[in-house]
Amino acid sequence: MLENPRSPRVRAVAKLRKKQERTASGLFLLEGPQSVAEALGFRPHLLVEMYATPTAFERHLEVAEAAMEVGVGIEFVSEGVLEAMADTVTPQGFVAVCRQFPTAVKEIFAASPTLIVVLEEVRDPGNAGTIVRAADAAGADAVIFTGRSVDLYNPKLVRSTTGSIFHLPIAVDVELSDVVARAREAGLTVLAADLSGEELTTVLPLLKRPTAWVFGNEARGLSPEHSVLCDHAVRVPIYGHAESMNLATAASVCVYQSAFAQRI
Question: What are 20-24's contacts with CB under 8 Å, separation 24+?
Fold first, then answer.
């Protein structure tokens, strides 16, 4: 059992909380039994190291069995070691080190997608991760992060996807102009989520078409130069007294509305 929180191995794992280290190593941090289980079920080849406390191991034997089935070893660690490795204040007993696995944007559009989600300058990792999870749940074909958005492998973002990061192709560090050009070439309509746009309920016929949704910064939305790249601007109506809607919530509504329309 690994028991020294100051050992070089523990410090190496803990360093993955920093973007600079993730970029240099090509690795990222994965926490919690659910996220680890999704990695084991969908992309076990990405797992480099896996750690668990004995208590968590006994509590989540299904994760241990899944690891055994795909030949991934689990090393026991003390509670103190796990806390030193993890990004969360109260970790859930499992930590893993994974290889990063971004998808090339050309591969996404070569697969004839019908629903794409694009994040332009989305900075909050919780919002970004929730949007990835919603896109996965709605059956989107891919998610694309432009270079101005938060790092896909930020620990909070990874946690907030609850494993969805392993379910669908995700491209990173792309220019929005390149995404829009590729989307149009692939026959997709590009919709910008924007407070000045048409009400979502008035553009329902558009949503039946192959679509790329573009979501901008939490505070500022899309810049004017990026808004004009898109085919239409669309807003989610607010029928109650709320001053505004959280970006991840609005994105979920938009993506699901497209999913509904494409399945009717």
Answer: 22/100, 22/151, 22/153
